[in-house]
Design goal:
The chain is of the alpha+beta class and about 325 residues long. It has helices spanning about 25-30, 45-55, 60-65, 120-130, 140-170, 180-210, 225-285, 300-320, and strands at about 5-10, 15, 35-40, 70-75, 80-90, 95-105, 110-115. It starts with a strand and ends with a helix. The model has no long low-confidence stretch (mean pLDDT about 85).
């Protein structure tokens, strides 16, 4: 387990940070203090210590240890348990990577738990430090900073995916494009969009639950900020849905284009086959071993050549005018 990150705010001012877990109860003894603790790959003993001090429910602690939860917000008698995901998108591989984070939310304590060491918790701290005027709102301020960071990550990933889908659209009608690569990329992007939908869709309910008045978590000053996060989640969700439909359309259009190209090729091959059938038929007729006009004469040879060239040219011009070849 990495060294826990800790902070203590008193009346909106940062008064202490980097203190050991054993001092959490000491800070909470001051009624004006709010404490934040971040645990990365915690040991069970450390989480049990916090659970005992903060009165955390056993089921919530179990979920935090196991993770791999669906984005959700569980309500207990005196605290909330949040499970959410951060999203990053790689344009090179078209893969979406997720980092799960859990949070215990009490009246004066905010505890975040994650197993991914690459989760950028420092960016969350920077988000808090950029809005010191909101720190007086306590735990609601800390929770908003975390959710705002996660939702902004959703927008960055969706925007990057949008650019990839647009690039894929431009490749559809290029005459020398690799259709197999386009089809594979379409599948990869659609798979990433489905994964993003699994993360973003439940977050809508999470933020909506926080906005409900019966949760008694949000001060009036923070309500507009959480409403803004909710609006962003809705926009990200709608954007993801439209991109998923668009990626499906690109995939279907690619298959239709391949079918059309195959029809064109078949049409041209059939046209040339019809032209080739003319000399085949004529040489077959003149290859008979029975007497006919011009048999074994030079005139018969010239007449057969004339028929081959004339009829083949006529068919070629006819097919060319009708765009069959």
């Amino acid at each position: 387990m990495r060294t826990p990150k800790t902070r203590c705010y008193r009346n909106g001012d940062l008064v202490d940070e980097g203190f050991p877990l054993a001092d959490v109860s000491e800070h909470l003894a001051d009624e004006g203090c709010v404490v934040w603790v971040d645990l990365c790959s915690p040991e069970e003993a450390d989480l049990d210590l916090l659970a005992e001090e903060l009165g955390l429910h056993a089921l919530a602690v179990e979920d935090a240890m196991k993770l791999h939860q669906r984005p959700k917000l569980d309500r207990y008698s005196d605290h909330l348990f949040l499970s959410a995901y951060a999203i990053t998108f790689s344009p090179e591989t078209a893969d979406v990577e997720t980092s799960e984070i859990a949070a215990f939310i009490t009246d004066r304590a905010f505890v975040t738990v994650h197993k991914d060491p690459d989760f950028n918790i420092d960016a969350v701290v920077a988000r808090w430090d950029s809005s010191p005027d909101l720190a007086s709102n306590g735990v609601a301020f800390l929770l908003h900073g975390l959710l705002d960071f996660l939702v902004d990550g959703y927008f960055e990933a969706v925007e990057a995916l949008d650019e990839q889908v647009e690039e894929l659209e431009s490749q559809l009608f290029e005459p020398r494009s690799d259709q197999e690569a386009v089809q594979r990329r379409s599948f990869d992007l659609r798979k990433s969009l489905v994964l993003m939908r699994r993360v973003i869709l439940p977050m809508r309910e999470v933020v909506n639950t926080l906005l409900r008045r019966d949760v008694h978590l949000l001060p009036n000053d923070m309500a507009p900020y959480f409403q803004d996060v909710y609006d962003h989640v809705l926009r990200a969700m709608e954007w993801t849905e439209s991109l998923r439909d668009l990626a499906t359309s690109v995939l279907e259009a690619n298959l239709a284009i391949q079918g059309n190209r195959l029809n064109v090729i078949t049409k041209k091959v059939t046209g040339y086959a019809a032209i080739i059938a003319v000399p085949t038929a004529i040489t077959g007729f003149y290859g008979q071993n029975v007497p006919y006009p011009g048999f074994s004469e030079l005139g018969g040879f010239y007449s057969s050549i004339a028929l081959i060239v004339g009829l083949s040219t006529l068919l070629y011009l006819l097919f060319k005018r009708n765009d069959w070849i």
